[in-house]
């Protein structure tokens, strides 16, 4: 919104003095965040993504994603996968893999159907959630495989070098599910308020943006039916500062 700090005096027809107070004017607002801090938003799927760098086995990674209202990531289209590969995931040095690459647990499992001369099998979605999910190509088999395991878990390998990432180069591994690895969680976009709190469906909140005087309803991760409060400037104060996160809260700067 716009604001003007001074009051204006204008002459009416009868010579009387009419005083006008300038107030905030509601303007169209762009909402800057649809994901909590630390998550990456992708408009194509209206989803949020986060890599957890602490090494966990596949089953512990599943539970960690569920605790943040998500699941291990699966992908619906090649464009979504390319978005994931192009992101900077704060790939600091860890002990799990080589310096130039990173593997993440993702939401697929490889079911072995024949162990004769080569491992034959097929990919499945680990947790049935999305009706439209593409399955990975034939995997590279990990080095920590057990002869008794008939189900292996999927790791998506990303590269640290930007030129490799932006060309979409990657690999799929079928690995022992009890190996420890970083992992990629995916969740639906959500409403995030001005103080970075997550807002549940149907609740009122003030979205992140430039206007702390908006009150909106959270609907499918989007702020809708927004109402703006209009604030009169503080009385008896010529110079003041508006609080960026509290509606109609001012600090007077007068001597």
UniProtKB/TrEMBL annotation:
The lineage of its organism: Eukaryota, Metazoa, Chordata, Craniata, Vertebrata. It comes from the Eukaryota. Gene3D superfamilies: Mannose-Binding Protein A, subunit A. Pfam families: Lectin_C. This is IDD protein. Coiled coil: none annotated. InterPro entries: C-type_lectin-like (IPR001304), C-type_lectin-like/link_sf (IPR016186), CTDL_fold (IPR016187), DGCR2-like_CTLD (IPR034010), IDD (IPR042378), VWF_dom (IPR001007). Residues 44-186 form the C-type lectin domain. GO terms for cellular component: membrane.
